[in-house]
Amino acid sequence: MKKEQYILLGLFLLATQFISAQFTIDGQFRPRTEYRHGYNNLIADGADAGFGISTRARLNFGYEEESYKVYVSLQDVVTWGENRQLLPADANNSFALFEAWADINLGEGFSAKIGRQSISYDDQRIMGGLDWAQQGRNHDAALLKYKKGNFLLDVGLAFNQDKADLSGFSSVGTEYSTTGFFSYKAMQYLYLNQSWDAFSGSLLVLNNGFQAYEDDGLTPDGVNSLQTIGTHLDYKKGSLGLAGNFFIQTGERQGDLKVKGAYLASLDLSYKASDKVALGFGAEIISGNDGDAGETGAFFPLYGTNHKFNGFMDYFYVGNHVNSVGLFDVHISAKFQLNETSSLMVKALNFSGEQELASGDKSLGTEIDLVFAKKFKGYGLAIGYSQMFASDGMYELKGITEDTAAGGQNWAWAMLTIKPKFLNTAAK
Questions:
Q1: Between 20 and 30 A from 412 (CA), which of 32, 124, 229, 260?
Q2: Number of DSSP helices (H) and strands (E) in the chain, helices first
Q3: Where are the domains positioned within the chain?
Q4: For the segment 352-408, what is each residue's pLDDT rounded down to a tens digit?
């Protein structure tokens, strides 16, 4: 029997022993088909479009009593056909423990949440669960939480280390050699949120420590510390909504790269014109690299749900556009409620660099996003289409000429989501 099968069997057996408390078992089955002909980057003329199907499957177990909660989420993300027929084991090691945490009630509004968990705040601009990505985003962290009325305070701490061998982490040193996507060795943050009748505001103070090395690139030498500080403000009254972000970054990124004067600012206006039409307008500016050697003024939104912002085709800040020319994004949207179960969202975004490209150009292009969503009894279906109309600056930024790029840059997808609830036993 495989390791994963032992885990599942053990969890199901535990379910029979906790009927007297609140115990839940639920899941998610989410296959998504994508046609990629210019997704994430401009595609060359004559290049074959990408096409494939991926599936996320989750099985979630929750247990709650008066003094604590425990939650475990098992996940497998696969691309159809990635394993050959009759393969005796999962060669791609896609099975993972997505979440495993305990939330302990300390009394007087205090609690401690410890373990692997998704961390998400506000509109998810800096800290988000990244649910669009099939693998999602999680953190191994400990949170001290306080909540009283409309006030919330979280203090988060994390420390990461390489796994040396099967017996556990190393007994000597605490090197963390994982790189890419701003993987941190240590993290500390403070988050505060206060809400009133129509207005809420939050403050995030975040420090990330990245493993630093001596000149040989092999010997660990402390950390490069990057600080991100900012606020999210939200106002809603009647049919009108207004939301804004302002964040700055300073300190050092990986590789001793100094960050100075980096910032992100955004403002979004929403208006519900009727029960069936909601309108939106907004702008966001993200600072770019100023070109000075050894330092940068480029902001990066770190662990947010970046797919939610700057266009669904993910041309910016989704595994790309790091330490680049920044971005100025102006967008307008409309969501139409077609009937009780169906909706259509239309969004147009115009992109420019916050800094000039080498040619002096700033204009990058315009993207159109369409999403149709339909709810059925017990499941939901979403279908999307996006088109990028690139400007001269986009070709320069992405390193491809207009003559060699495909005439149409587009992306289409369809996603089915089923969330079965297998068991929900309320406390007696």
A1: 124
A2: 2, 22
A3: 102-425
A4: 999 999 999 999 999 999 999 999 999 999 999 999 999 999 999 999 999 999 999
Neighbouring C-beta atoms of residue 343, cutoff 10 Å: 18
Under CATH, what is the fold of the domain 102-425?
Answer: Porin (2.40.160)
Q: Is the pTM of this model over 0.85?
A: yes
CB contact set of 141 (below 8 Å; sequence gap of 6+): 115, 117, 119, 156, 157, 158, 187
Q: Hey, how many other C-beta atoms are within 10 angstroms of the C-beta on 11?
A: 14
Whats the size of the chain, residue-wise?
A: 428
Segments of 126-198 assigned E as strands: 139-148, 151-159, 163-165, 168-169, 186-195
Long-range contacts of 421-425 (CB under 8 A, 24+ apart): 421/24, 421/25, 421/26, 422/25, 422/26, 422/27, 423/15, 423/23, 423/24, 423/25, 423/26, 424/22, 424/23, 424/24, 424/25, 424/26, 425/18, 425/19, 425/21, 425/22, 425/23, 425/24
